[in-house]
Structure formats: structure tokens, C-alpha cells
Amino acid sequence: MAAVTSAPQPPVVLVLNGANLNLLGTREPGVYGAATLADVEQLCRAEAERLGVTVDLRQTNHEGELLDWIHEAGRRHAAGEVLGVVLNPGAWTHTSIALRDAISGTGVPVIECHISNVHAREPFRHHSHVSAVARGIVVGFGVHGYPLALAGLVTVQRTG
Ligand code: DQA
User: Fold this and answer.
1) Which of 127, 129, 135, 144: disulfide with 109, CB 3.0–4.6 Å?
2) How far apart are the C-alpha atoms of 60 and 145, rounded to whole Å?
3) Residue 5: burial class (beta carbons within 10 Å; 0-12, 13-18, 19+)
4) Which residue has the higher pLDDT, 61 or 2?
């Protein structure tokens, strides 16, 4: 009997979005632009196809759920299934030590991504709890930052 072989699955990148990012498209368009989260997903899928990875894009307004997803990403990264995470935590960037601890505690590679240039905005947006434990940071390219972050993650994970 012929051996059953299954094709290797492409690595997965989780694209995780935090508080209020479901409002993209209508939320402060002067700051965040007119693109919706569905548009972001399309941009990421096109780039993922080019890179030979699969994306799993999610958004939550519940901090604990985001922590659970980071833990899941950490487990699946250890299992060789998940390459890493592109993460836009929204305002939790500036408030959540728990989020920083989840990233450092799981060791999952994270690219921090912000649509706006947070450093050109209010002083409370200048500090990120995530940056010190992120593998890289993409800031201020609008929604085009997501595919840039995805390409950056794949490049550093493949080439070191
Ligand atoms: C943001 C910047 C944060 O300061 C803000 O709270 C957000 C969006 C960005 O993508 O530019 O919700 O992360």
C-alpha cells in the first residue's frame, strides 16, 4: 500500500489587532485613513501569497483575549507551525504590561505595527510597553505598514 503523504503546510503568521481597530475606515480618518480592517486583511493576504505564508488576521476589544492569542501563538511557534505575530495592540501598546509579559513569556517573535506615526502624536503615545520585546517595529506607513511588517517578520525568521 502506498504511504500516505501530506503536503507540508505553509507557516502561519498571526496578524493581531487590539482595541478599536474594528473601527478602521470610520475612526478618525484624518489619522488612520479610509481603509477598513477588511482592506488590511486583503493587503496581508496578497503579501502572504507572495511570501509563501498563510495569515490569520484577528481583532479584539478584550485585552485578555489578546493575551490568550499571544499564548496560542507562543505554543504554535514552539511547535514550528507559527512563524510569528504582526501586532497592532491599539491603545494597549501604551498601557499593558501584561501584553509585554505575554510576549516575553512566550518568546514568540512579534513585529509591532502602528498605522499612525505615534511619535508625532500626543506624548502618551510616545511610550510603548511592547517595543522593548518586539523583534521589529513598523510605524507611520498607514495600513501599508501591515504588509511591510509581514515581509519583515518573514525575512528575519528565514534569514536570522
Ligand atoms: C495605533 C496607535 C495607538 O496610539 C492608538 O491607540 C491606536 C492605533 C495605530 O495603529 O496607529 O488605537 O496603534
Assistant:
1) 135
2) 19
3) exposed
4) 61
